[in-house]
């Protein structure tokens, strides 16, 4: 007897940590005979229990619920769902469950969920602000859940998506959650474009580059459909990152303690490299080996362009080939 549905996570004041509900039957190999931490009776492998993943602590559901007030469960009301969402922090959320906000796999991240409806959100997605002002648009944007689950179009990157987005209904302007985290950070000389540009890992509409006037993959074999762009969303101005005046060397003390030098691709660094991908040493993300990278020749540290230019202005003064880098 107790609250239904049972809270997936409860706070046990005696133990001082969150306890997680486990309802599946444990196999003989994964079950050692334990005693309930509350009543000290033997535990049965088929009984639902509350347990602490950080410590060897578990208790009968009845023992925990008897001393539980329902307001002690970690829960939230969310505009996207008509039931309470409970915080779930356990290893079961890596079994292919999709976050309905960002459309990414839940993985092992903490989530808010409604088990009865199979409705789950990453904790970080569930806690997104309901409204924000973004430099891509002149009006405040409101977080919408798109409960119809129809595809919507992101005005920043061109992607079609079904998840949450920040929208201006009056202007029919939409930002998917990934693009809502991007900020303009790259400034070229005014003769190229007056506004600060934003680095996009991918544009799904493959727009024409205002530098080389071509769309990938027509320009170069190394410039594939996933080519990085710098883009002014307000003006629909686009350039391949490789068509911008990139500095030969950059010093980014927050990334690496040596100066890094630009290389055309990863193969130029290691002659015997035969993989199609490499790993950026800064963000540990897999990248295409044909992409342009920065490299430290002293210790073979490799960093991709997205990490290098995450907080950099590129300024080329007219009449000189010198490039000045300003960290913002």
TrEMBL record:
Residues 14-64, 79-126, 135-179 form the DC1 domain. The keyword Repeat applies. The keyword Repeat applies. This is DC1 domain-containing protein. Pfam families: C1_2. Keywords: Repeat. InterPro entries: C1-like_sf, DC1. It comes from the Eukaryota.
């Amino acid at each position: 007897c107790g609250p239904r549905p049972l809270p997936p996570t409860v706070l046990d004041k005696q133990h001082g940590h969150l306890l997680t509900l486990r309802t599946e039957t444990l196999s003989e190999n994964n079950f050692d005979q334990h005693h309930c931490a509350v009543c000290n009776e033997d535990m049965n492998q088929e009984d639902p229990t509350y347990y602490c993943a950080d410590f060897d602590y578990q208790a009968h559901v009845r023992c925990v619920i008897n001393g539980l007030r329902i307001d002690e469960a970690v829960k939230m009301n969310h505009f996207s769902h008509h039931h309470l969402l409970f915080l779930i922090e356990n290893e079961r959320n890596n079994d292919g469950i999709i976050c309905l906000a960002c459309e990414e796999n839940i993985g092992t991240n903490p989530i808010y969920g409604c088990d009865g409806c199979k409705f789950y959100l990453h904790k970080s997605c569930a806690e997104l602000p309901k409204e924000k002002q973004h430099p891509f648009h002149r009006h405040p944007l409101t977080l919408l859940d798109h409960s119809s689950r129809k595809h919507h179009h992101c005005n920043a990157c061109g992607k079609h998506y079904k998840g949450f987005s920040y929208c201006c209904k009056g202007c029919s302007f939409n930002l998917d959650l990934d693009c809502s985290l991007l900020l303009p950070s790259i400034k070229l000389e005014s003769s190229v474009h007056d506004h600060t540009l934003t680095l996009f890992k991918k544009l799904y509409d493959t727009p024409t580059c205002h530098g080389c006037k071509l769309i990938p993959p027509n320009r170069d074999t190394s410039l594939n459909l996933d080519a990085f762009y710098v883009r002014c969303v307000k003006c629909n101005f686009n350039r391949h990152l490789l068509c911008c005046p990139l500095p030969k060397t950059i010093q980014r003390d927050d990334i690496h303690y040596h100066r890094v030098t630009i290389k055309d691709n990863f193969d130029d660094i290691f002659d015997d490299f035969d993989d199609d991908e490499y790993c950026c040493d800064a963000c540990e993300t897999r990248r295409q080996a044909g992409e342009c990278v920065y490299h430290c020749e002293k210790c073979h540290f490799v960093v991709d362009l997205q990490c290098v230019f995450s907080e950099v202005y590129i300024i080329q003064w007219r009449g000189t080939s010198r490039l000045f880098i300003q960290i913002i």
